[in-house]
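Continued from yesterday's entry.
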Amino acid sequence: MPGFILVAHGFPSNPDPAEAALAALAARVGAFLPEARVISATLAKPGSLAQALETLPRARIYPFFMAEGWFTARQLPRRLADLGSRAEILSPFGADPALPALVIKTVAEAGPGDLILCAHGSQVARSSRMAAMAMAERIGASLPGRRIVTAFLEEDPHLRDIAAQHPRAICLPFFALRAGHVAQDIPEALAQAGFHGRLLPAIGERPEAADLIAAALRRA
C-alpha cells in the first residue's frame, strides 16, 4: 500500500492546533484514496515527523507549503536526513496546477470587490513573494473588473499598508494551514489598518483542498 505524509510548518509556540488540523486534512485526503495510507506531521511539533516516518518509513512527502523554496529545497530535506530518511519530496500545494482555479472560485464566491492576496513574504528568500505575485497574475484574466494586489507580513508592501489603501477589499490569505499568521497576525494587521472588508479563510482551508491534494497524490 502506498503511503504519503503531509508535512506543514505548524506553529512553534502552540503546535497542537495546527497538528490536529493537518491530521484532519490527511484523513479527508485519505478518504479519497482508499488504496493508500495518508498521515501527517508538522515541523513545529517535536517528534511529529519522526513518528510519522516510523509509521510509514517508505512514504513520500507532500509539502503542504505555498511555494517551492528554502523549506522544500533545504529545510525539509535536512530534517529528513537528520532522521535517516531519503523520502521523496513531492511538489508543494502552492505549486499545484489546479490551485489557480480554486483561488478564482474562492474569490468569485466572496462577491465583488478588490482582492488583497496576502502571503508570508521574507526579507531573505524570494519564493513566497514570487509565488503570490505569480498567482495574482494567473488569476487576473479570470476575475475581470477587480483590482488584485499582493501584500505580505514579513516584507513590503506590508499587509497593514495595503489594507489601509483598500479598506473594503476582500483579503485572501495565501497560506496552507491555519496557524499563527492566519489566526493572529493577519487579523491584527487588518485591524491596525482600519480594514472593513472581508477576511476569507486561508486558501488551504477550503474543503476542495483535500480533493486537490488527493489528485496530486494519485499523479505521484
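--- second protein ---
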Amino acid sequence: MIYTKDDIKQLDRVTRLKIINAVTGIKPANLIGTKNNEGQTNLAIFSSVVHLGSDPALIGFIARPQTEDVGHTIRNIQDTTYYTINHIHPEFIKNAHYTSAKFESEISEFERCKLTAEYIDDFKAPFVKESHFKIGLRFKEAIDIKVNGTTLVIGEIEHLSIPDQALVNDDIDLEKTNSVGISGLNSYYTLQKTQSHPYVRIQEVPEF
C-alpha cells in the first residue's frame, strides 16, 4: 500500500490519526501525573515521551494544542512546575487507555479510571502507585511548534524509581520492567529484548 500526500489528506480523521501515529513504530506508553495549585489531580496517557539528554537528565514530551477540554496536563505543569511520568504495565492497560477521554478539569482521571495517586518523598506531583517504573520531573522549558500548534515540554529528572530486577550490568532491561509500548491510538505491545551490543567505538566496528 502506497499513500501520497493527497491520499493521506483524503483519509477520514480517525484512520489518518491511527496510520500516522503508527508509522514511527512502537513508542513508550506512559501516564503523566500532575496536580494544579488547587490540589486537583490529573492523569493522562502519552506516547510521545522522548529522551533529550543525560547531563542534565532531560526528558521531553509533545503536548497537543490547548483547548477548554484539552491541555490540563501542560497547564498544571506550567502552574506548579512538577509532574511525573509513569510506565504502563499489562495489568492496567485498560485503565490507562481511558485516561485519554476528554474529562472536565474537576474530574480526576486517577479516581475515574481507578488508578492510585501516590506521593513519594514529598515530591509535589502524584505518581501512579500501580506503576513499577516512575520518574519525577521539574519543568524547564516549553518550545512551541508553530506548524501544528503543539508544544515540546522539557523537564529535568529529580526522582527516579526503577525495579531492582530491571538493573542488569549497569543497564536497564526494559523487558524485566514489564512495561508496554503503544502504536497508533489504541494498540499496545509487550517488550521483548532480542539482542544487546557494546557501546560503539570506531575502532571496534566489525566488518559486515
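Residues 13-22 form the longest helix (10 residues). The chain has a mean pLDDT of 94. Will compare against the first tomorrow.
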